[in-house]
Amino acid sequence: MSFSLLVESLGELYKPIKIRVVELEGDLDYASKLDRSSATIQRLLRDGQERAEWSFDSRSLWPR
């Protein structure tokens, strides 16, 4: 089977998917992964709410 026929047959089985990535700004380091303080959790929630809109527009498309 030629490569072009293989690609065509795979195209019938699979469809393209979009990968979206919404990155947070800032200074998160390794220690922040272990920090469970209320202030850190509130900050992450606030940052996530501010960036939530990005999930629905071109800013979240990957690769960039």
How would you sum up this structure, described in words?
This protein has helices spanning 3-13, 30-34, 38-51, and strands spanning 19-20, 61-62. The protein has a two-stranded antiparallel ribbon. The chain has one domain. 47% of the residues lie in helices and 6% in strands. The chain has 3 helices and 2 strands. It is elongated and about 60 Å long. By secondary structure, the protein is mostly helical. The model has no long low-confidence stretch (mean pLDDT 89). It starts with a helix and ends with a strand.
Please render the helix and strand layout as text:
Blueprint: H1 3-13, E1 19-20, H2 30-34, H3 38-51, E2 61-62
Antiparallel strand pairs: 1-2
Strand content: 5-15%
> What percent of the residues sit in helical stretches (DSSP H or I)?
40-55%
- Overall geometry comes to elongated
H/E series: HEHHE
- Largest sheet entry: 2 strands, antiparallel
Q: Total number of helical segments? A: 3
Summarize model confidence as the mean pLDDT: 89
Q: Give start-end ranges of low-pLDDT stretches.
A: none
